[in-house]
Amino acid sequence: MQALPDGLGLPLERGVALQVTARRVRMTTMTVLGAPGEVFLLTHNALRSQIGLATHARVERIDPVTLRPLVRSPRLPGGPMWPGGMALHANGDLVTVYGRWAHRLGRDCTIKAARRLPENAPYNSFVTLDCGLIVTKNLSDHAPAMLSVLDPDSLAPVCAPVACPEPSIARLSAVGETVYLVGTASIMRFDWDGTALRRDPDWRHFYLEGSGNSYGWDAVIADGHAWFMDNGHHRYRLSMIGRGLRRTPNRLIRVALDNSDDVEAVTVSRLPGGSITNPPLVDPARRIVVAYDSANRVIAAWRYGDGPLQALWRREGIGCASHLLLDPARGLVITNDYAHRREAVIALDITTGETAARIVVGGMLQGVVFPSPGWAGDIYWCSMGRLARVFVAASASDAPTNHT
Q: Residue range 348-375: average pLDDT?
């Protein structure tokens, strides 16, 4: 999700301040909304992976205001560590992919189905096709990506794994019955034909040719184009700042969906050592795309349409690295700003780049995962060791609190 649903954005007005409630959590990935008032949180452990031990994930249903856990799932086996992902499926249950395991959970966080995935590697979340099937893949920078298609009820494979022509680090993207995959050298797509995923032989772009850059991350499919950024090889520890491994600038790349030869690439910050670990943001209504260079603390925007991308604004000194959220009604981009081992959440005007609101949420690690909306004009901000609820206080009873 990039755009907030109608009515679920922060109700920001001039002069209104943000508030925050925060809770320490081992490692958070994302929250997902269920029925009105239901909020589910995906967490995982990571320290065991540092010494070669298997890791696990857990799902909680949390209080939407205090963030306290109300119900917890059993430990969900994962094996090799990667943050993974979670979604509420059309069948009414939660689906998670973490490590090399997929799980289906009831809304009471009990396990209904589990499936060990074929590759001995972490799987980088999943996408759901319009027909309801789940598609996931292993994460690797050296072994070819293998696409697995799962039944959403049993989690059993519905066809043999589909071999890709190259490795892939990025998360998958999907529109309808088509899956887009950013590999370590090219972007390609696969169509579900009712029996298997088939690679489109006529749509592929080798985005790294002649660049000297490293692999790309997740693609945003919007307004007739695939949008993503490269130079994704980095050494994230506490933050992304200064952690890029190539001395080249990172780039924003556009590939047209109707013609993979119709492409454009622009450097984001023009600074050496540029790097990211997430996708750009696209506002189709305003025809604006926002990209960033996490390693150099730069965020910028371009207007797109007829002709080349046109630079719109640029901000330096903004430590953004997480997935971005768009409030389309108010024209705001919600992101993080990390510096000096302290993280803030900020809202930027998408047409000017000006800061509309800012609140420190705390935590020593820079968030690189998924923020998401709440039910009451609030935002849940996930980072690697902290969950925060950002909101506009309506009364004294909404005063911020912190839970450990």
A: 94
